[in-house]
């Protein structure tokens, strides 16, 4: 989960992905906005199947604070 700082109440953004059988595909680029946001992975809080690698890039402007839990 990533919590991005800002001066407004955060809006919830839940990422989506395609799921086919027992495989799961995830990852991508998340663009930080000037207001607070919460990002969660697909099917959070469920775990991914074993052997799945999920890579997210958070793109933020200089001076923005990103907090990961």
TrEMBL record:
Q: Where is this region: Disordered?
A: 1-23
One matching Pfam family: CUB
Where in this chain does the record put each CUB domain?
A: 26-69
Alphabetized UniProt keyword annotations:
Disulfide bond
According to the UniProt entry, which residue ranges have a biased composition of type Polar residues? 13-23
Does the record's keyword annotation contain rRNA processing?
no
InterPro entries, sorted:
CUB_dom, Sperma_CUB_dom_sf
Q: Does the keyword Chaperone apply?
A: no
Gene3D superfamilies, sorted: Spermadhesin, CUB domain
Q: Any idea what this protein is called?
A: CUB domain-containing protein
Lineage at the top is: Eukaryota, Metazoa, Ecdysozoa, Nematoda, Chromadorea
């Amino acid at each position: 989960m990533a919590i991005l700082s800002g001066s407004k109440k955060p809006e919830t953004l839940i990422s989506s992905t395609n799921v086919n059988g027992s495989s799961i595909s995830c990852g991508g680029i998340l663009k930080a906005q000037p207001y607070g946001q919460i990002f969660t992975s697909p099917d959070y809080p469920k775990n991914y199947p074993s052997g799945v690698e999920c890579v997210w890039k958070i793109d933020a402007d200089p001076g923005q604070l990103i907090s990961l839990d």
